[in-house]
Design goal:
Layout: H1 13-23, H2 29-50, E1 60-64, E2 70-72, H3 73-87, E3 92-97, E4 104-105, E5 116-124, E6 135-143, E7 165-173, E8 177-182, E9 187-193, E10 198-203, E11 214-216, H4 227-238, E12 248-249, H5 255-265, E13 267-271, E14 282-283, H6 284-297, E15 300-303, E16 320-321, E17 323-327, H7 328-341
Parallel strand pairs: 3-5, 11-12, 11-13
Antiparallel strand pairs: 1-2, 3-4, 5-6, 6-7, 7-8, 8-9, 9-10, 13-17, 14-16, 15-17
């Protein structure tokens, strides 16, 4: 017998957040409002992404962001949408974005509830937009210290390890649009139903499969990797270990897309330090820490090779770190190799 479609069949992001608010001490009204606002902002971004080929928002806009990268028009638009979404919430004390050098503080000192700091990459993978590749928004929410809630936000207030995050998540804009997040109570995914305009629960309590099905790395950089990283990659690609015999190279070049696939299928994503420049690529606050929280909540792990990503105390808004993220067994194996060669 086929189930009839009715409202009670749907668990929406809104209703799920409301339930979590009742069940868990660390999820309350002001915090739930922040998550809802991210959901609204992502719907607006999604609508613009869907029309990217029809309006003049493709291509480079002529400016360069703080990372020294040429911004595309869609980056600017997504950044503006996210900033506008947060600026109207009294519980937001401040925000930092990958696209801007400095943070933004909101002096809502008369607001008497819990306040939060938000960090985000408004449009990860945007350089792939012209090729119609999946892109995404990554976010992290940090509780603002109550003891200083009447004071102005400082840069140092953002410098907290990933383990202190209240929430982290991403929205992936692909063949479907998914909102994936955690508040420390598991990882849950919601797919946007375009007919009703709501994110509907589609993946509850996501766990990374205990297999290395996908190996995601820019392998053209192999000669720029240290020996531990080379051996790790070679083991996955060429060894007779049964764990890796069915592993396939899968690298999109859009972090959200690569991570999302590996989260669902099982695998490893890595972007190590370039030994020729001694510079890592990915940003701790906007990319690595949020995804590390999701990975750990899904039974996985994220590491630099010598330190768990969630234990790193940031010292810069745009700090970059090397990262290996995915199945816990494989990340721990990488750490063993790094220790072997140190």
């Amino acid at each position: 017998m086929t189930r009839s479609s009715s409202f009670r069949d749907f668990e929406t992001l809104e209703s799920y957040i409301t339930k979590q608010q009742k069940l868990h001490v660390n999820v309350r009204g002001t915090f739930s409002q922040v998550l809802r606002r991210i959901g609204v902002a992502s719907k607006i971004i999604e609508s613009k992404v869907r029309k990217a080929g029809l309006v003049d928002i493709l291509g480079v806009n002529g400016s360069v962001n703080v990372q020294g990268e040429h911004q595309v028009k869609l980056d600017d638009m997504a950044n503006s949408i996210m900033k506008a979404a947060f600026s109207v919430i009294p519980s937001i004390a401040g925000m930092a974005t990958e696209e801007e050098e400095d943070f933004t503080a909101f002096d809502n000192i008369e607001f008497d509830g819990s306040r939060y700091l938000v960090m985000f990459d408004p449009l990860d993978g945007s350089s792939n937009v012209d090729a119609n590749v999946s892109i995404g928004t990554i976010f992290a929410v940090l509780k603002y210290d109550k003891a200083t809630s009447k004071s102005s936000v400082t840069k140092e207030d953002f410098f907290k390890p990933g383990r202190t995050l209240s929430a982290a998540g991403y929205v992936i804009y692909g063949s479907s649009t998914m909102f994936v997040y955690t508040t420390g109570q598991g990882v849950h995914g919601f797919t946007l139903d375009p007919e009703i305009g709501e994110f509907v629960l589609s993946h509850e309590n996501i766990k990374i499969p205990d297999q290395c099905k996908c190996f995601s790395a820019n392998e053209t950089n192999y000669n720029k990797w240290d020996q531990a990283t080379k051996e790790f990659a070679d083991t996955i690609r060429y060894s007779d270990d049964k764990r890796y015999q069915k592993a396939s190279s899968r690298y999109i070049g859009s972090l959200v897309a690569d991570f999302h696939r590996n989260l669902l299928y099982g695998g490893i994503y890595m972007y190590p330090t370039d030994v020729t420049t001694n510079k890592p690529k990915l940003r701790l606050l906007y990319e690595c820490a949020p995804l590390a929280m999701i990975a750990e909540q899904a039974g996985g792990m994220a590491s630099t090779g010598t330190q768990n990503i969630l234990d790193i105390v940031p010292n810069q808004l745009h700090q970059r770190v090397p990262i290996v993220i995915g199945n816990k067994k494989d990340v721990e194996f990488y750490e063993e190799l790094v220790k072997k060669y140190s």
